[in-house]
Design goal:
Length: 178
């Protein structure tokens, strides 16, 4: 419970700062339009394939991430709330290096985005990201700030109470820690 509240507060501060830097006013959150039960939790241990061109950026996290592009024919048919969930998911992935499962939980949490599960699932299914790199960045943070062993970092990365990365993503992170 504390993790979700802290994560939500950190994300809100970071997102407000990003919006202010871009000259945009922070968007206010509204309660979900739908309270219908959701279909399923994120079913995503498979890696998404990148479809966007690699960017030539000096910033490592932006170079790792590709812009998500929705098909132009259906772009107008995607509900506003789904698009907002996708933008939030991209922010959580880029700024906080979260896993797919952790992002889904944050998006649907009553202490987080409060998005309907369908909107959160759309975001998870649509986002194009390097999840292994996010696992590595999270592992580096654990190693530097908490002085954890590789075994302890791995356990934290895959824990349902921790970062919720897949075993493959966690192993990649451990293999690439310096």
């Amino acid at each position: 419970m504390k993790k979700v509240i802290i994560t939500s507060a950190m994300a809100a501060l970071l997102l407000a700062g990003c919006s202010a830097e871009n000259g945009a006013a922070p968007e206010s959150e509204s309660p979900p339009a739908s309270t219908a039960p959701a279909s399923s939790a994120p079913a995503s241990s498979a890696e998404p394939t990148k479809t966007a061109e690699p960017t030539k950026s000096a910033e490592p996290t932006k170079a790792v991430a590709a812009k998500t592009e929705a098909p132009k024919a259906t772009e107008k048919s995607v509900p506003r709330e789904y698009k907002a969930a996708l933008k939030s998911a991209e922010s959580y992935a880029e700024i906080m290096h979260m896993s797919k499962a952790d992002i889904f939980e944050q998006l649907t949490s009553e202490y987080g985005g409060k998005f309907p599960k369908e909107a959160a699932q759309y975001a998870i299914d649509t986002i194009v990201w390097d999840w292994k790199e996010n696992a590595l960045q999270t592992a580096k943070s654990y190693a530097e700030t908490m002085n954890m062993s590789d075994s302890e970092i791995y356990d934290q990365l895959i824990s349902e109470y921790g970062a919720k990365f897949t075993k493959e993503e966690a192993q990649y992170a451990i293999d690439h820690l310096e």
